[in-house]
């Protein structure tokens, strides 16, 4: 039985608005009281949240936990611990583990490992669209659904041709599974590792044109139009790609999209000095792309925000740029850097919660939560006054690889409560009473 | 994160490594060319050696096949009396799984003073310089599509021998700009020396995006691009890129972008022709042009040794580095 918790006098945000005063009562992992006036009664833990910002926890749409197959980078236990510490209540796992999540046995194996950690963080597994993600043979999606996969994904791996793309979409729809795609035309992307533009040209890095994304988005949208099947576009990087998805959404197509936080905060200028921490796929793009991605997130054309968590060991990044492994460790900077979007007035508080909590739950097919009575008590207290430069040495994830090192945060996670259990708190002593 | 231009200088603004010509000051570039001029007579002396780098060890680490360039580096180091080691890194331990970082540590343990490195990845020399132990320098002999600074320096040296005031010149660089580290380094060097105008001429398939931000004017029409040009710098076209999705055929490339006798005649007798070699006769240029009076191609090869001697001497020939 978990301890009962009372949080009083918080400022709060959820998807619907901002609240000057909100007090919560939490029992048995659920919110039992949510009102401007504090709840009465006896509570095991009493928290005075005056001056802090209360928000529903982050739901992460793409977190590589590196297990099975790459435990030299991270493991399920380490990354779920980091998620809980960082105010992330649920994570979706892409299927590109080794072995690939293309059969129920791998799903069962991951579930067993997750269960063994005792973590309260919910893990949603995406099954592979094709066997071994090779892009040719459709996987047993029915069996994957029965094993508990909540969606199907092909990650950034290519499907053989448009016929396979169509069949994957139709087959997934037969089992009511949404397809998560990372839109990239493999031929156009080639061996590219940097946005096609002045920076890549100057540095002599093989380029990835914007058309590598927009061509793929266009093909998928045509197939969605033809089949009516659901597609979630993950990790959009180009302004044009975002606009195409936004137009499709406005036209009523069943599509959604997310953008990685680093795409909103950085451009290809971060590649200066061949900084391999800034080697991500899709690549960091131009200032115009960044600005459009921000605008589309604010307007809802892009529905969700993710951190695209990809922890790496030191050696993976300690190489010449194109030989280094792409990806950034994102859990530790999710909240702290997302808050900086509020400072930059890119989005407001409710838009942020929609993007990092409400919409991801919907995309993953999970019930709505938030700060309402009856919701699972997944929440954070954010201290907007605790700003600091991002320091990877302090990360809880095993991956210290971030292109955001040195960036000033918009605040910190002062308390993380997942399923009614306090997983982390750095509150002043006077605020918390047991 | 330091850029290559910042990383290659020590606190006093002197060369600590040589990674790129980008961001190099006119003064430093001119100093290198002047130093090369001092070394040039060594080749004609009865004893082709000076004792400047006696006791120093230069290690040629070539991850890409190269006979000519490696030979000129080896000759340059030998003429400075350095001990020279050659490692054919294509068949060395990196192919057995050793990381570049570990390889560098291992080789540094052999008390090497300078790595001359050629690698297929842009930024590879920068990576070596970032991790270099105190007193160990890195000389970039070509990294991916990024930079080939000694080629650009020898090009500037050769050009200066014939046209002392480079600021008066309009220079066209022609060919595979997409994949060329030579082109990038030449552009930066020409800019540093204040060339009046730099043009780049290539089909769109070989023209990198945003190249105009390097301070050049792009042309896709060879005849228009060559109009009024003083110097034509031709780039080598790799054989595997002559057919396929980048170009239709070597013949069509030659007709559209090759330096033909007709085009050279239109430029006039004062125009100069350069090529980093090895040339593809009938592709980048008509065969006879290579050895015409207007061609500087063989001089470029000859000057490569003096330039490499100059750079080595400036980096490790002036006492222990930081």
CATH topology of the largest domain in chain A: TIM Barrel
Question: Quick check: average pLDDT of chain B?
Answer: 93
What fraction of the residues of chain B are assigned to beta strands by DSSP?
Answer: 5-15%
Question: Helical percent range of chain B?
Answer: 25-40%
* The CATH fourth-level homologous superfamily of the largest domain in chain B: Aspartate/ornithine carbamoyltransferase
SSE diagram, text form:
The complex is a heterodimer of chains A (434) and B (322).
Chain A: E1 5-13, E2 18-27, E3 30-35, E4 45-48, E5 53-56, E6 58-60, H1 76-85, E7 88-93, H2 104-117, E8 122-128, H3 141-146, E9 151-155, H4 162-174, E10 179-181, H5 186-189, E11 194-195, H6 198-203, E12 207-208, H7 211-227, E13 231-233, H8 239-250, E14 255-260, H9 261-265, H10 287-299, E15 304-306, H11 314-317, H12 334-343, H13 349-363, E16 379-383, E17 412-418, E18 421-425, E19 432-433
Parallel strand pairs in A: 1-4, 1-5, 6-7, 7-8, 8-9, 9-10, 10-13, 11-12, 13-14, 14-15
Antiparallel strand pairs in A: 1-2, 2-3, 4-19, 5-16, 16-17, 17-18
Helix pairs in contact in A: 4-7, 7-8, 8-10
Chain B: H1 4-7, H2 26-39, E1 57-62, H3 68-79, E2 83-88, H4 100-108, E3 114-119, H5 124-131, E4 137-143, H6 149-162, E5 170-174, H7 181-192, E6 197-201, E7 217-219, H8 222-226, E8 231-234, H9 250-257, H10 261-267, E9 272-274, H11 297-316
Parallel strand pairs in B: 1-2, 1-3, 3-4, 5-6, 5-8, 6-7, 8-9
Helix pairs in contact in B: 2-6, 2-11, 3-11, 6-7, 6-11
Keywords:
heterodimer; A: 434 residues; alpha/beta; Urease, subunit C, domain 1; TIM Barrel; 2 domains; nine-stranded mixed beta sheet; eight-stranded parallel beta sheet; 13 helices; 19 strands; globular; B: 322 residues; Rossmann fold; four-stranded parallel beta sheet; 35% helix
């Amino acid at each position: 039985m978990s301890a009962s918790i009372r949080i009083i006098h918080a400022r709060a945000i959820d998807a619907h608005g901002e609240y000057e005063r909100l007090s919560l009562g939490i029992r048995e992992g659920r919110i039992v009281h949510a009102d401007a006036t504090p709840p009465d009664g006896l509570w095991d833990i009493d928290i005075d949240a005056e001056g802090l910002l209360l928000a529903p926890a982050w739901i992460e749409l793409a977190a590589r936990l590196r297990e099975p197959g790459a435990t030299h980078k991270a493991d399920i236990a380490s990354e779920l611990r980091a998620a809980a510490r960082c105010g992330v209540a649920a994570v979706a796992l892409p299927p590109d583990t080794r072995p690939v999540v293309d059969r129920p046995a791998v799903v069962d194996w991951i579930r067993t490992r997750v269960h063994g950690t005792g973590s309260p963080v919910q893990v949603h597994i995406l099954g592979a669209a094709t066997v071994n993600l090779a892009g040719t043979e459709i996987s047993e999606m029915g069996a994957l659904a029965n094993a508990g996969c909540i969606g199907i994904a092909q990650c950034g791996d290519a499907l053989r041709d448009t016929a396979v793309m169509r069949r994957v979409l139709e087959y997934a729809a037969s089992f009511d599974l949404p397809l998560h795609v990372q839109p990239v035309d493999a031929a156009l992307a080639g061996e590219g590792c940097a946005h096609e533009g002045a920076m890549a040209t100057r540095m002599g890095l093989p380029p990835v044109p914007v058309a590598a994304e927009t061509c793929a988005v266009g093909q998928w949208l045509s197939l969605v139009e033809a089949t009516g099947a659901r597609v979630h576009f993950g990790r959009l990087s180009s302004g044009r790609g975002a606009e195409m998805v936004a137009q499709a959404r406005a036209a009523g197509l069943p599509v959604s999209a997310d953008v990685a936080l680093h795409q909103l905060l950085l451009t290809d200028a971060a590649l200066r000095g061949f900084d391999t921490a800034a080697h991500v796929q899709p690549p960091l793009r131009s200032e115009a792309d960044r600005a459009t991605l921000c605008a589309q997130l604010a307007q809802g054309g892009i529905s969700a925000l993710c951190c695209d968590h990809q922890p790496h060991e030191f050696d993976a990044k300690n190489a010449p740029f194109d030989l280094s492994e792409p990806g950034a460790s994102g859990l530790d900077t999710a909240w702290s850097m997302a808050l900086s979007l509020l400072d930059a007035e890119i989005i407001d508080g409710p838009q942020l919660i929609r993007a990092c909590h409400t919409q991801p739950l919907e995309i993953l097919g999970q019930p709505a939560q938030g700060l309402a009575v009856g919701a699972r008590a997944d929440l954070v207290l954010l201290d907007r006054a605790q700003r600091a430069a991002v320091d990877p040495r302090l990360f809880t994830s095993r991956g210290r690889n971030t292109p955001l090192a040195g960036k000033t945060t918009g605040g910190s996670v002062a308390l993380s409560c997942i399923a009614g259990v306090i997983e982390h708190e750095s509150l002043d002593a006077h605020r918390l009473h047991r | 994160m330091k850029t290559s231009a910042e990383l290659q200088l020590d606190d006093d603004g002197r060369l600590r490594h040589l990674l790129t010509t980008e961001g190099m000051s006119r003064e430093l570039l001119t100093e290198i060319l002047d130093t090369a001029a001092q070394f040039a007579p060594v080749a004609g002396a009865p004893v082709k050696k000076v004792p400047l780098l006696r006791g120093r060890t230069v290690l040629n680490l070539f991850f890409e096949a190269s006979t000519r360039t490696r030979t000129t580096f080896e000759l340059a180091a030998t003429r400075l009396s350095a001990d020279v080691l050659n490692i054919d890194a294509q068949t060395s331990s990196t192919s057995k799984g050793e990381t570049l970082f570990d390889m560098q540590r291992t080789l540094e343990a052999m008390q090497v003073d300078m790595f001359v490195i050629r690698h297929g990845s842009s930024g590879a020399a920068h990576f070596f310089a970032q991790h270099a132990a105190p007193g160990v320098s890195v000389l970039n002999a070509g990294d991916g599509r990024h930079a080939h600074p000694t080629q650009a320096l020898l090009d500037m040296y050769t050009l200066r021998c014939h046209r002392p005031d480079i600021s008066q010149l309009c220079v066209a660089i022609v060919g595979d700009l997409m994949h060329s580290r030579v082109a990038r380094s030449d552009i930066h060097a020409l800019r540093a020396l204040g060339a009046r105008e730099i043009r780049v001429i290539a089909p769109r398939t070989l023209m990198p995006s945003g190249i105009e931000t390097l301070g050049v004017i792009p042309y896709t029409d060879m005849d228009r691009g060559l109009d009024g040009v003083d110097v034509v710098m031709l780039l080598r076209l790799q054989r595997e890129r002559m057919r396929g999705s980048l170009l239709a055929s070597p013949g069509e490339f030659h007709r559209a972008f090759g330096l033909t006798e007709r085009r050279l005649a239109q430029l006039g007798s004062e125009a100069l022709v350069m090529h980093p070699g090895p040339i593809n006769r009938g592709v980048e240029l008509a065969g006879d042009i290579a050895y015409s009076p207007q061609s500087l191609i063989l001089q470029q090869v000859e000057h490569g040794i003096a330039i490499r001697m100059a750079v080595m001497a400036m980096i490790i020939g002036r006492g222990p580095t930081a």
